[in-house]
């Protein structure tokens, strides 16, 4: 391709999005690990190459320390998912377990992004927020989703 074609494709973000998806999938396979790549469109990749994307609806969670908040939410959800009382027999089925685990990651991302939205709300409209404000908004985000 010419330099003009590459610049146009990059300006559209199509090549960047494709590269981001491919890089995330490859890293998960290479490390044989789940990869969660935070962003406006958050990517969740399994070691088997399955990728789920979550449109978080905003970039309010793009603040220092918010990844730590997301890690805490995910850790809590994973502990709940892996608890002996909550462990369904389907976890012995690898495909079902992978699907369940992808859902755990997705739910953590959704709660995190909703908490970021709540934390960014001010009396004057939306504004940049902090990781501590996002963490403080987690109970409200969880309450909202428990009603759904």
Write a structural description.
This protein has 148 residues and is mainly α. The protein has helices spanning 3-12, 14-31, 66-82, 94-120, 131-146; strands at residues 35-37, 41-45, 51-55, 121-122, 125-126. Helix 3 runs antiparallel to helix 4, helix 3 runs parallel beside helix 5 (131-146) and helix 4 (94-120) crosses helix 5. The chain is globular and about 45 Å long. It starts with a helix and ends with a helix.
| Spatial sequence of strands, sheet with the most strands | 1-2-3
Our measurement of the CA-to-CA distance between the termini, rounded to an integer number of angstroms, reads: 48 Å
User: Low-confidence stretches at least 5 residues in length (pLDDT < 50)?
Assistant: 1-10
* Rg measurement, Å: 17 Å
Shape: globular
């Amino acid at each position: 391709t010419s330099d003009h074609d590459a610049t146009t494709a990059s300006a559209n973000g199509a090549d960047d999005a494709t590269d981001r998806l491919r890089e995330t999938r490859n890293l998960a396979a290479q490390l044989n690990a789940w990869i969660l790549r935070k962003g406006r469109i958050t990517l969740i990749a399994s070691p088997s190459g399955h990728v789920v994307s979550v449109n978080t609806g905003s970039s309010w969670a793009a603040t220092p320390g918010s990844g730590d908040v997301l890690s805490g939410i995910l850790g809590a959800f994973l502990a709940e998912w892996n608890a002996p009382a909550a462990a369904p027999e389907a976890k012995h089925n690898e495909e079902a377990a992978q699907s369940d685990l992808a859902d755990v990651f997705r739910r953590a991302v959704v709660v995190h992004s909703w908490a970021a939205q709540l934390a960014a709300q001010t009396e004057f409209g939306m504004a940049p927020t902090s990781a501590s404000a996002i963490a403080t908004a987690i109970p409200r985000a969880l309450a909202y989703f428990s009603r759904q």
